[in-house]
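=== How it folds ===
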Amino acid sequence: QVQLEESGGGLVQAGDSLRLSCATSGRTLSSSTMAWFRQAPGKEREFVAAITWRSVTLTRYLDSVKGRFTISGDNAKNTVYLQMNSLKPEDTAIYYCAATRTTGDLPTRHYAYAYWGQGTQVTVSS
């Protein structure tokens, strides 16, 4: 059984940093593309970042977080991270970790991901 568990959310001020973690079980990181999505109140779930491992590590980001957020993974710990710097109030959302059944691509659509965590709240005050 595949399980994803997010942690690291919280309440911060604009300009602060947070690091989200996604601990996985039942599956190794290298067998999936791993991603972070977010959902703000009244809005659709939005792709934030993805990572996959081929001969090299590939990543993909939402334009509005490029240069501020970094996705990474620790295969030994089976954990994916999202380092978020220079946070803005518009980054406020529930952040979800997700995994695909196969690796290779970097999809941005939520329906491409088969496994989801419960989410962690990130609130950025101005």
In short: The CA atoms of residues 59 and 73 lie 11 Å apart.
